[in-house]
Structure formats: C-alpha cells, structure tokens
Amino acid sequence: MTLKNSVLYILLLAIACCFSACHLFPQTVTRPIPDIESGPISLDFDYTNSITKSGWVRFMDLSEGIEDYEWDFGFQENGASVKSYTGAPKIRFPSNGHYNVKLVGISYKDDTLTVTKSVVVSNY
Length: 124
Prior knowledge:
single chain; mainly beta; Immunoglobulin-like; 4-stranded antiparallel beta sheet; 3-stranded antiparallel beta sheet; about 40% strand
C-alpha cells in the first residue's frame, strides 16, 4: 500500500465513522439554561408546636422565589421585637397564647411580599 493509498484509506475511514454511530469527536449537548426570572413568587409559612420542648415553635417556609426574610414574632424581649432573618426559624415564645407572626420576604425580582398569621402556642 502506498502512502497516497494509506492517506486515502484513513480519510475514507474517518468519513465512514462520521456517518455511522461512531463519532470521532464528542458531541456537544446543549441544554437550555433555566430562566429563574420567570419562576413563581409566593410567600407563605406554616408552623408546629414542639412536643418535647415547652414554648418552642418550628416555622416552615412554604415560599417560592424569596431571597431575603424578616420574621416578626409578635412579642418583645428586653424591650425589642423578637425577629429572625432565616427561612425556617425555631423560636421560643414566652407563654401559651395567640401571636400575630408577620413574615416579610423580598423576591429575586426585588418585590416585597408580606403575610401575617395568627400562631397559637399551646405547649407549655
């Protein structure tokens, strides 16, 4: 086999591989980048009283698209409102009773949402 025939053979082999299931070069798979700007935005929470620790309440974040949180738990400690800035805080309330818990959330679009719920503490 001459050099010219060898080069031609390799070229034909490469072309045959390209048209068959064999690939000489890896294929690039492109996936769409998710558009977080079009996702849902909502602000909501739920809570449960602890069954083992008196006064403790666990809050669950049910929000979507929220980046920043500010909770106000409806009571004061040392003259200041008790607050939290996490998505799902655990808080000890001073006594059984009804508390108006306010949650303010800021979305990824910089929208400010507010929800207030009456929370019943009943585990003292």
